[in-house]
Design goal:
Number of strands: 14
Radius of gyration: 21 Å
Bound molecules: phosphoenolpyruvate, manganese (II) ion
CATH architecture of the largest domain: Alpha-Beta Barrel
CATH superfamily of the largest domain: Aldolase class I
Shape: elongated
Structural class: alpha/beta
Helix content: 25-40%
Strand content: 15-25%
Number of helices: 11
CATH topology of the largest domain: TIM Barrel
Number of domains: 2
Strand order of the largest sheet: 7-8-9-10-11-12-13-14
Distance between the termini: 35 Å
Amino acid sequence: MIIVTTPDATEAQIQHIVDRIHEWGLKTEVSRGAMRVVIGVIGSEDVIREKPIAAIPGVESVTPVLKAYKLVAHEFRQTESLVKIGGVTVGGKEVVLMSGPCSVESREQIVSIAQDVKKAGAKILRGGAFKPRTSPYSFQGMGIDGLKLLAEARAATGLPIITEVMDTKDLEAVAQYADCLQVGARNMQNFSLLKEVGRSKLPVMLKRGMSATIKDLLMSAEYILSEGNFNVILCERGIRTFETYTRNTLDLNAVPVLKKETHLPVVVDPTHGIGLREHIPAMALAAVAAGADAIMLEVHNNPELAKSDGEQALMPQEFADLVARIRRVAQAVGRE
Ligand code: PEP
Ligand code: MN
């Protein structure tokens, strides 16, 4: 439900509206525009419907959000959400680069890659300690030891960390080390996990499931926001189509559609989206042109020895060259 206040509503009236809604056991989200204040009401639709909200002084209109997703909808929050990861803001003018190896493999590997990507312009270190692998016989990640090495790489470079949490039972441990939790494509509809990360204080990067529609992605994000965590970034990482030449089909359509539908920032992951090293730069540049707020790129200092996703990892120099080109495209589309 969206409440719009009258243009002449006083601060006292606005506060009274908010207090009254809280008394009814509902929550609020206040967005201040130039003329009017928009108050989103969060809670059971049935409870909201029976309350005489329109009778409160200062209320001009009360409108239900008709879409299935509500808190993530742009109607609910008119401004663009800025999500802070460590000291880095995602969703503002700057196109943020998040980078690192697919998996943390050793202290030397993660610290060296973190230093390389930082030097090239990455603002966030992304590396996996708990890895969702298609085969149970593939490397499953270093687990807690990997988290500790990520923390060492953060101490060495100052870069905040994004890392994946695959299971509710690991959340407490991952949250001790991470600056942002990643929910991977395979867990996009793990509703127990979504609710748990929704109760966390940490930001969450939610990756689109490989067979999920844009609406499915938004509904999954709604689970996280409905638990009180509005610090969510959506990640387009490619979907399954009939095409087999590439690992996935990067759905750049999702970028402008998501920017219209939701206030949440949008990240594009061309690495998993195309899965072929030589074509990643083209898709990264296209993602920036399409309006991505951040780009996620896997980088490895020795891809032929990588324990996961070596064939799609950029070498540090390739990453640095790409960053220079990303900067030029970002400037061309009015970003930094
Ligand atoms: C990853 O980011 O390393 C990863 C496994 O991605 P996805 O969940 O998109 O497959
Ligand atoms: Mn990977």
